[in-house]
Amino acid sequence: MNRRNILLASAAAAAVFSSSLALAQDTGAPIRLIVPYAPGGPLDITARALAERVRESLGTVIIDNKGGAGGNIGADAIAKAAPDGLTIGIAATATHAVNPWLYARMPYDAGKDFAGITQMVRVPNVLVMNAEKAAQLKINSVADLIAYAKANPAKLNYGSGGNGSAGHLAGEMFKQRAGIFALHIPYRGGNPAQLALLSGEVDFNIDNLATAAPNIRAGKLKALAVTSLQASPALPGVPPLSSTFKGFAIDTWWGLVAPAGTPKPVIAKLNKAFVAALNAPETKTRFGALLAEPVPTTPEQFDAFMASERAKYQQLVKASGAKVD
């Protein structure tokens, strides 16, 4: 085959790939959106909300929940799908920033096997104490908590949803920056960890704001700080930890990715549709009920963000000593 024929063949192949979404819409073929967690959680709810909003621009989007192995099973299914724009999925803090360093063996390469479409949301974590325990110890601020820990070495503990969980790593980061010690007690999931805090088994947690908010509002938990760079409108008067420790930021996030090799025109079309959906007032209201802030980005911005998060969590996982064989 001469050079001219090779160029023509390459151009034809690129045209086929770049038109795959248009053909899917014309023929009614659905797009599959893989959520690497069970139905009913915040990732699933937000994915379903966006699937409804892009129906007119992209056609039918079917949600496919593939949970297990900390999200690795679903993420691997995304990575190994055909790069034609007909299978996309959700990348999250765990699957694309924590798990690559936490698991001894990974079925996919978080840095090479995916193409970012757009970040979807950001949800702050929040440093919380049992309200009764905080009152008993006269702890009303982060400064009070640090002062108590330094005056009473080895007396504090904190809970999380398990070794290597977001709450565990955030707790280790807080301890490092504050120069304090608190014993980590891992539980089998976020809900048992919160129940342990409510019952007084542990002294503090760093929990997802969406999970902790109902008990904060009920007065059962005392919020000392959020872990985002800025204060959260959902918790007026609660400062960010960054006001105590410059640059402290450890939020929960997720977004949309496609398999690596998906043609850029296809990625661009997906980005345009989902960014429009994220910017819709109805989406902001619906996500706001989950205390999730929509964060539409370009594909390049989301790729760069995920790379920076992997670098951050590499250090945190190493410092924590957490491993999953």
Automatic annotation (TrEMBL):
<feature type="signal peptide">
    <location>
        <begin position="1"/>
        <end position="24"/>
    </location>
</feature>
<comment type="similarity">
    <text>Belongs to the UPF0065 (bug) family.</text>
</comment>
<keyword id="KW-0732">Signal</keyword>
<dbReference type="InterPro" id="IPR005064">
    <property type="entry name" value="BUG"/>
</dbReference>
<keyword id="KW-0675">Receptor</keyword>
<dbReference type="InterPro" id="IPR042100">
    <property type="entry name" value="Bug_dom1"/>
</dbReference>
<protein>
    <submittedName>
        <fullName>Tripartite-type tricarboxylate transporter, receptor component TctC</fullName>
    </submittedName>
</protein>
<dbReference type="Pfam" id="PF03401">
    <property type="entry name" value="TctC"/>
</dbReference>
